[in-house]
Prior knowledge:
Layout lengths: L2 H24 L6 H14 L3 E10 L2 E3 L16 E10 L2 E10 L5 H17 L6 H14 L3 E2 L5 E5 L2 E8 L14 E5 L2 E3 L6 E2 L5 E4 L8 H13 L5 E2 H8 L3 H13 L3 E4 L2 E2 L6 E3 L2 E6 L2 E4 L2
Antiparallel strand pairs: 1-3, 2-14, 3-4, 5-9, 6-7, 6-8, 8-16, 9-15, 10-14, 11-12, 11-13, 16-17
Helix pairs in contact: 1-2, 3-4, 5-7
Amino acid sequence: MDEKILEYYLKAGEVNKKAQKKARDFIQEGVLLLDAAEEIEEFIKKNHAKLAFPVNLSINNFAAHFTPSSECKEKFQANDLIKVDIGTAVEGYIADAAFSISFNKKNDKLIQASENALEAGVKVFKVGAELKEIGSAIQKEINSLGFNPIQNLSGHGLGKGIIHGAPSIPNIENNDSRAIEDNEAYAIEPFACNGEGFVREGMQTEIFELNESKPIRNMHARKILEFIEKEFDSFPFAVRQIQKELKLNEFNLKFGLKELQQKEIIKAYPVLKEKEGILVSQTETSMVAFKGKMHRLV
């Protein structure tokens, strides 16, 4: 990594900070999720960054990978616990960050658990720190407030065009003695919940990612693939983003995406959810190690 790359990361982080403020101002009780997602995404583009992934607005027991469809009529409700996950990219270099909000103070303690856990992880996050140290610090903070970390969700490495790279940054105490390396970027991402701390894939999938470009016969699938390669490259995208730009009818859109998925040209990111009735909070930041010094992007 050179200083120019660090500069790109820092610029992505600045846009992400602004986008988070925009999100906090815009998201209110009664606002449509679709309006919020599109407002934040347009804000990022207007601030000279690309979307590293569609804005995630995962609510209550939904932990990750939920973004509204173009037909979504859901509104933010009084008791919702909302995870807002935003990815910004400059020249392919990513700042990945998330926060949780609620309109009901009864959820404040759970939000505090993931926020405190993030700060505990950041405190020990330095070149040479072992991954098990970071996971232990995160878990202790969450447990101290009476909650559990989501054990099968983790932070991750970041790279040019790579949103989920190695290594996984644990949210629990484990035996991983691998160390944080210099001149690398990472996302620390604690999830806290009032349940057992395990998420499962749901039925709904609104987010996909290009896996491998291959020849495809179907006209609609080919049109979608060409658009993905041009607009998103290796970054995840939402079905609604394809639908908005290509204006395919619902049948041709679904058929085209199914063809691409069956040929393993694209891969799906199903929603990840805890049990019904469980609440999940999330807080995330990105860190860049450069010449022995840690730079917090958001």
